[in-house]
Amino acid sequence: MRFGHFDDAAREYVITTPRTPYPWINYLGCEEFFGIVSHLAGGYCFHRDARLRRLTRYRYNAIPTDAGGRTYYLRDGGDYWTPAWAPVKRELDHYECRHGMGYTRITGARGGVRAELLFLVPLGASAEIHRVTLRNEGRVRKRLRLFSLVEFCFWNALDDQTNFQRNWNIGEVEVDGSTLYHVSEYRERRNHYAYFHVNAPLAGFDTDRESFVGLYNGLHEPQVVVEGEPRNSVARGWQPVGSHAVDLELAPGEERSLVFLLGYAENPPDRKWERPGLVNKAPAREVIARFSTAPQVDAAIAALRAHWDGLLSAFTVRSPDEKLDRMVNVWNPYQCMVTFNLSRSASYFDSGIGRGMGFRDSNQDLLGFVHQIPTRARQRILDLAATQFPDGGAYHQYQPLTRRGNHEVGSGFNDDPLWLILAVAAYTKETGDYAILEEQVPFDNDERTRAPLLDHLRRSFEHVLSNLGPHGLPLIGRADWNDCLNLNCFSETPDEPYQTTGVRDGRTAESVMIAGMFTAIGPEWARLLSHQDRTAEAAQALEAVRRMERAILEHGWDGEWFLRAYDFHGRKVGSRECAEGQIFVESQGWCVMGGVGLGTGQARQALDAVAARLDTRYGIMLQQPAYRSYHLELGEISSYPPGYKENAGIFSHSNPWIMIAETLVGRPDRAFAYYRKLAPAYLEDLSEIHRTEPYVYAQMIAGRDAARHGEAKNAWLTGTAAWNFVAVSQYLLGIRPEHEGLRVNPCLPAEIPEFTATRRCRGATYLVRVRNSGGGGRARLTVDGRALDGDVVPWARPGAVVKVDCVV
Ligand code: BGC
Ligand code: NOJ
Q1: Cα of 308 to ligand 1 centre, how many Å?
Q2: Is 415 in the pocket of ligand 2 (CB under 6 A)?
Q3: What is the pLDDT of residue 708?
Q4: Residue 640 CA: which ligand 1 atom is closest?
Q5: Is 130 a pocket residue for ligand 2 (Cβ < 6 Å)?
Q6: HSE of 790, CA atoms in CB hemisphere, 13 A
Q7: Residues carrying an active site annotation
Q8: 209-214 average pLDDT score
Q9: Is residue 234 over pLDDT 90?
Q10: Which end is more exposed in the chain, N or C (fewer Cβ atoms within 10 Å of the end residue's Cβ)?
Q11: pTM of this prediction?
């Protein structure tokens, strides 16, 4: 069942009923200020850091779900209603929500009044614009009163939800004309405040929640709206809110827009005050002056659109499959940008309080956005590398505001170092910027320990080799990519975190997945070295890769598939000898991507085992059979009920590894079938089962063992976005930057007999036209009319337009 449709020309998903199977959200902002906005206008916003600079409050896990956000109430005679349907939930004559690139437009109509709410964060400002457009569609004159409402958060979102004994005493506001200022804690250590402005005179205002809502009322019946009279309340302690009341009179057919601005402002410490006791409002006024007329808002929308035109034009495709096109051209790269901005911090499943930026996560995310924002990707790499330790290990997470490693979680995730190599390989291939390898980057942010980035990568590579276990396979540490396979943990005490409990330096448990990664990423390191004319070192690196390959075939092959690991006691994990958890997806994907068993048959055999044992109609499960009891020696994985998350859920992130692997063994039908099972645009008709947004990937879909097989969770912030983009753009469509040039080598089934693609890279534009027989065979290329040897089109000079014809 569908709850809306795609509008491809507008690059919007159009939701046509407020009763979606779950709140379907969008993100505002792409620089320093971000908002989450649901199809009911729920959500919140923050400046840079969802934990430390939260402007508005949001209650996760609330009843009803998705309560609170940016609320606009309309009073029309005796009636009052909310155009975004919630929270008042009066039946609407019309409802529509359009989630677009960095903006959301919600329209509701009732009683002859049509109200459109447009939400966006303009480029170059730390603020949200809410443009409210009201139109009288009836035959009589309307006298309307509009109430806005946002609830302020005391900045630190964790403290805000826990420390009531203090927080209910610190609330302070200032009211200045049509601007409401939230200035709690500004008197002491903060030099930032929030403002909420409207470009119209007020009939009144409220800044105290209890005065506005009423102590025993809900947001669906705030007493001020019910009575129609603002109370001009000034918050002192308790809960500060911002609410404007604006009167409008509309003749039949008349339309009027109001521009609200919800922003963040900062003052230098010596300029905090206008005069004693009065906040310096200059930075807020400056932004207000830039965004408070209709033409200014139109210009902001146009600028945002142009910004996204630029980002999305780096790679476009035109094929006979419109779902493929909308994933590749719009929604997948859009989601990749959201993961760039937010890593795993703030979604409707990530509270914004817990994790900051993940080292592993952000390196992988980069694979999906590097072609859109190479310059910012460069900075991200340098930030990540600066959280590395001298031994090549890395902080597993860091806080975006401070860029400092998170001590609570620390390091010891032994896959982490390799992801940095993969990210830098992708970045240099994309940009040709090899100078980044010479950048001086500190270890653990200690400026005294700066070393060239190349040295960081070397230490990453060496970290694996200096942490090998009894079988010559890499030690797993706290966990590898699978956060929940904690082979050194042994937790029997509730509340202990699985990822940080237990034997930190376990010297026995080994990961075949990291071994596979080493065979796939090691050659990338060698290629970088060769490119820097370090051929001897490159040869040594490749020798280490071959040793690892031998170790995998000797100790990591289970007969029909690759083992997953050896546990602390040296017992196999992911083997047919196991009663549960006999086969895992990760090692199959990574070993094949590393070329292990490609020439000798094991690669195909492993992928056949995946198809036979892990594939379902909704995607590939992480492992089988699911763990039905708690395995002390395996950690968090067996703590989940069967079919959920890492315990045999369909962990979307790992599916594209199998898609890529299938292209490497030359099976386009299977690769594309896996792609279609997971890509959200193809799941639109299953929305009542899938439940999360049909325009973005979710981290996890319940596996076959779960009661609600096919139901997704953790939409938006997942490495699934980047990896699916890599799989589809670089391996299925087959357009992939290499150090020497642009490889064109599609692997698609006969149902995509042809496509054209435009790829911008290193300043040149490649117009690729493909005819495809569907057999997954060799690609024959003609470049600007001349036949090419091989499938790598040499880099053209910046500004050039290169025509590539390809026959498969
Ligand atoms: C989840 C993982 C997640 C980890 C991070 C686990 O509970 O299942 O998916 O990466 O927590 O802390
Ligand atoms: C989510 C985490 O963000 C990611 O780093 C991890 O690899 C997966 N969970 C799998 O456990």
Answers
A1: 32
A2: no
A3: 98
A4: 8
A5: no
A6: 7
A7: 483
A8: 98
A9: yes
A10: N
A11: 0.98
